[in-house]
Amino acid sequence: MTRHECGGVFVFIGADADTGWVPAEIARDKNSYVLTGDDVVKARRWSDDRDPFLLESSMPGIFACGDVRLSPIKRVAAAVGEGSMAIAFVHQYLAHADAKDQRQARR
Ligand SMILES: Cc1cc2nc3c(=O)[nH]c(=O)nc-3n(C[C@H](O)[C@H](O)[C@H](O)COP(=O)(O)OP(=O)(O)OC[C@H]3O[C@@H](n4cnc5c(N)ncnc54)[C@H](O)[C@@H]3O)c2cc1C
């Protein structure tokens, strides 16, 4: 046992990512946090011909936000902000997919 002089203690509990149910196609790090954006590319798990959106997982069109996403920011404000960003990315994803379908139909 060791003793440390300190003015206070911050107990940080309950921060595990419970992603055991997530399919293997969605890349996670060794601590089970979902990779998104550049982290997916760095892990060589991105397969589409465009770059992933900031909050897009390794499965195109599936987005992750908040604490479950690999990110150093674990705060309420970040989770809420990312939630609204994710919706904007969904709209961009659908517009991109629509344009791609139309290009393929013209061929
Ligand atoms: C001890 C502690 C203190 C903190 N203090 C602060 C603070 O002072 N200020 C601050 O800004 N942030 C604080 N945080 C961080 C903040 O709580 C998180 O950043 C924020 O709650 C993340 O929101 P979220 O929606 O991403 O995840 P969560 O709030 O964890 O919400 C995820 C929800 O999904 C549910 N869920 C999980 N798996 C499934 C499933 N398979 N099916 C259905 N539902 C599921 C969970 O039960 C949970 O309700 C603290 C965190 C901890 C642990």
Describe the protein's architecture and organization.
This protein is mainly alpha-helical and 107 residues long. The longest helix is centred in the last third of the chain and has 31 residues. The protein is elongated and about 75 Å long. Bound molecules: flavin-adenine dinucleotide. The site of flavin-adenine dinucleotide has 14 residues, from helix 2.
Write the layout of secondary structure elements.
Elements: H1 38-42, H2 76-106
The protein binds flavin-adenine dinucleotide.
Throw out a few tags for this protein.
107 residues, mainly alpha, elongated, 0% strand
Count the beta strands: 0
Instruction: List the secondary-structure elements in sequence, H or E.
Output: HH
Proportion in helices? 25-40%
Our estimate of the beta-strand percent is under 5%
Low-confidence region ranges: none
Report the average pLDDT across residues. 93
Q: Specify the structural class.
A: mainly alpha
Amino-to-carboxy terminus distance: 72 Å
The hetero molecules present are: flavin-adenine dinucleotide
Overall radius of gyration: 18 Å
Largest sheet properties: none
- Coarse morphology: elongated
Q: What's the number of helices?
A: 2
